[in-house]
Amino acid sequence: MTVYSNSLLSTYEQCPLKYKLRYRDRIKRKFETVEGFLGTMVHWTLRKCYDDHRFGVNMNMDGLLSHFNGLWKHRWNDSIIIMKKDKTSEDYKSRGEEMLGDYYRHYSPFNSDQTIDTELSISFFLDDAHKYRMIGYIDRLSKTSDGIIQIHDFKTSANLPNQNDADTDRQLALYQLGVQQKWPDYNTIHLIWHYLAFDMELVSLRSPEAICELAWNTMSLIDEIESTQEFPPRESGLCDWCEYPDLCPIRKNIVIKESFTKNEYDSQQGVILVDRFALLNNRGEGTEGEMEKVKIELIEYALREGIDVIRGNEYQVKITPVNKMKIRGESDIESTELENIIHEVGKWAKVFQNDITSLGAVFDNNLWSNELMEQIMKYSNDEKGYSIQISRPGNLKR
Question: Could you confirm whether domain 4-227 is CATH 1.25.40?
Fold first, then answer.
């Protein structure tokens, strides 16, 4: 079985397709964002600070910032992606200096605890049978004078979670399990997140029962990943930071758009279809038959191009596979049996125009009892279809 990390699990939860491309298909992309680069430079600087302190060398503020700036200058390259167009690399470097300065003023002279290790690699199992193995890296592990073990995690994120987020976080709780397997005598463990952009820390304590439940939930998630055959894309605010837009059926159309001039883009079939569909949908122009024709053409285009989202000039449409129940009514015997069932419970008058093929709407709206619907389902088949949703980008609606 694959050796898992919290990063692998989080990637699957964030987007199964991204997980498959990165970890199953092992498609490597050189893709580094400035946010990730900033985090790495800050982590390396704090590691240097605490490693020096362990050997009796106390780094002052100037030395800390000098080390950070040296790393930044040596490691920066023009392939690092800055998504926010109003920001520069200097803006992010200045932000890193501010975070490190605040941290130094808060914790200097760094004698409130004893550092056991930094960037500690840890390997552990979730179960006694040693089937489910995890690995991870602890930013800093320390011990206080009264014997409390502290697992520290440095965060450069611009978002500050609340206490409930900390108390339900999986990563450091898994590391607690790993630390207790390696050092069984470490009974009292505090999980500490340092949110450097806010000069704040969040602390969480987990009971043995909570750790046990976490292990079970994590094993269940791993079982799901191991057994799944489908890895659909999952759209979120993180998509702009994904390295696989050209392989994603949701984002591929954006890549296509960016490769054309305005006139070239306007002439693309998908653009024409979406713009026409938006006009018919919003203004009610055209006939029902014309709307149906455009829908069919949109579905065919999406299937042919291998995409789920098609963009026009102002709108986008999302094509989603759906299974719909279809009443067979293939023989007079089946039809009579089904009609008798519905008559017996006094529901025949509720059937649209006394047409048993209209029962799909009853199921879609969950109008009858489960027992009755289970009887009717014996006379039905699942039929594959597609739903079409139209929206302005970023605000998908039916």
Answer: no
